[in-house]
Design brief:
single chain, seven-stranded mixed beta sheet, two-stranded antiparallel ribbon
């Protein structure tokens, strides 16, 4: 019976325009019935929980799957998320993968890493977990987001602070090996084209950044230059439509070298990197 219900739910979600209807229908069935997705066939007909249709109705309204389940998966992490915090996306995993490789290539015993606009803490926690001897610092401005950041970072060794990414960590100036950020980068002019899950549920502070979407990235360029040691690296996520623009912010005239763009898993331009020039 449950698999028949999942098929019916899949059709309902597809009709509502949900991008991954089958996956979401199965995830919600697993969530309601307290099993993993691969164990749905073990749920007996008599154990079907009618609350399933309540959560399907919420997803039909384009409420994010992660808000309904209260959890998001990012690399090897399970994070708590909900209203007020940006839900981490799979594309950002490519950013973190590049950052990890870059830090390892530096051959620094205890690399210093700063995550600007940390949100749920996904990037900072992944780096702390996968680069074991790193010293990871993270900053978030929004009090609403920090409710979730603090939950996710409880017991971790990440140095979390509340503050503005543009003025953060003056005590680390010139000492940082890697600066990483997934900042807001959607142009205000694109508001109507943003998926309802993001537009209606993610905080605006985490989405939009000026007319062309690059306002905060321009500010972070200066912050990164202030924080990094010579030879240190910045990696910053951007929209796939901004691929040609972001590396041009990190110019030689502003003290950078090797500015470049990189694709995500779908081969779309997704993040830019640059190295602080040696004196």
């Amino acid at each position: 019976m449950l698999l028949a219900e999942v098929a019916q739910a899949t059709q309902r979600l597809a009709d509502a325009g949900v991008p991954s209807p089958r996956t979401d229908a199965e995830e919600l069935a697993a969530f309601v019935h307290g099993v993993k997705r691969g164990q749905l066939h073990l749920v007996k007909d008599s154990d079907f929980d009618a609350r399933y249709w309540e959560v399907i109705a919420r997803r039909e309204q384009r409420e994010p799957l992660q808000h309904i389940t209260g959890r998001a998966y990012f690399r090897y992490l399970e994070l708590q998320v909900g209203p007020g915090v940006f839900v981490p996306r799979p594309e950002t995993e490519s950013v973190v993968g590049w950052a990890i490789d870059a830090v390892r290539a530096m051959d620094v015993v205890e690399p210093s890493i700063v995550d600007l606009c940390t949100g749920s803490g996904a990037i900072a926690l992944a780096l702390a977990q996968e680069v074991p001897r790193s010293r990871v610092h993270a900053v978030e401005l929004s009090e609403d987001a920090l409710v979730w950041t603090r939950k996710n970072m409880a017991g971790s060794r990440v140095d979390l602070r509340q503050g503005d990414a543009l003025t953060a960590f003056p005590d680390l100036d010139g000492q940082v090996d890697l600066v990483v950020s997934n900042p807001p980068y959607i142009p205000l002019t694109e508001w109507e084209y943003v998926a309802p899950e993001a537009r209606d549920y993610d905080p605006e502070l985490a989405l939009f950044s000026g007319e062309d979407g690059l306002d905060l990235i321009r500010g972070i360029e200066r912050t990164a230059h202030r924080l990094l040691r010579p030879g240190g690296v910045v990696v910053i996520e951007h929209a796939d439509t901004q691929g040609g623009q972001v590396p041009w912010i990190f110019t030689e005239e502003r003290g950078w070298a090797d500015a470049a763009d990189h694709p995500d898993l779908n081969n779309r331009p997704r993040f830019a990197t640059a190295r602080k020039a040696l004196p």
